[in-house]
């Protein structure tokens, strides 16, 4: 084998390794906004969708890396099936524990299709519930057997829906769903 062929093979192999490493890495700031929410970067940190006012005064959206590290999970973009099964909105800016007080949301989150198949979303809401003093597995157990009782228990645990803020223009922008541009 000639030295130029050997050099070409070595160069090809080195380039293949380089490309494989760069193509597989998930960086939140490089994700399209329509897959940002419920994604986890290669660093293990959650991605979050933020909005800001563009130079033209219109609301723009961007994907950012949060400070929240997800244990035992990295390089994950949530599937559309899980987003649908769990009843979450990939285009919403921010996340709130108020969703637990909406019976349709709690039913979808606790459904077997979500609870047993979507560990990323369950982990996120498990931590959110814990912050409110609620143990998500117990809430879901009760939700599946007696949904009305689940809401009563949720309220009696000291968790309560947050106050309703007046709907100023600023609040409407912060809660507005992002448009979902095509990644292609």
UniProtKB/TrEMBL annotation:
Instruction: Enumerate the UniProt keywords alphabetically.
Output: Signal
The transmembrane segments are none
Q: Does this UniProt record's set of keywords contain Signal?
A: yes
Signal peptide region: 1-24
Q: List every stretch annotated Disordered.
A: 162-184
- In terms of superkingdom, the source organism counts as Eukaryota
Q: Does the keyword Cell inner membrane apply?
A: no
Q: What is this protein called?
A: PAR1 protein
């Amino acid at each position: 084998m000639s030295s130029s062929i050997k050099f070409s093979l070595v160069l090809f192999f080195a380039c293949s390794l380089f490309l494989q490493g760069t193509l597989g890495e998930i960086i939140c700031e490089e994700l399209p906004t329509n897959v940002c929410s419920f994604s986890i970067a290669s660093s293990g940190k959650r991605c979050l969708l933020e909005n800001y006012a563009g130079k033209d005064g219109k609301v723009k959206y961007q994907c950012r890396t949060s400070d929240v590290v997800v244990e035992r999970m990295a390089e994950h973009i949530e599937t559309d099936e899980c987003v649908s099964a769990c009843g979450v909105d990939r285009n919403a800016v921010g996340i709130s524990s108020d969703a637990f007080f909406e019976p349709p949301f709690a039913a979808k989150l606790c459904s077997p299709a979500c609870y047993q198949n979507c560990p990323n979303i369950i982990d996120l809401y498990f931590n959110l519930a814990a912050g409110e003093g609620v143990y998500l597995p117990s809430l879901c157990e009760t939700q599946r057997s007696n949904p009305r009782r689940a809401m009563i228990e949720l309220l009696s645990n000291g968790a309560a829906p947050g106050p309703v803020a007046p709907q100023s223009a600023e609040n409407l922008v912060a809660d507005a769903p992002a448009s979902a541009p095509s990644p292609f």
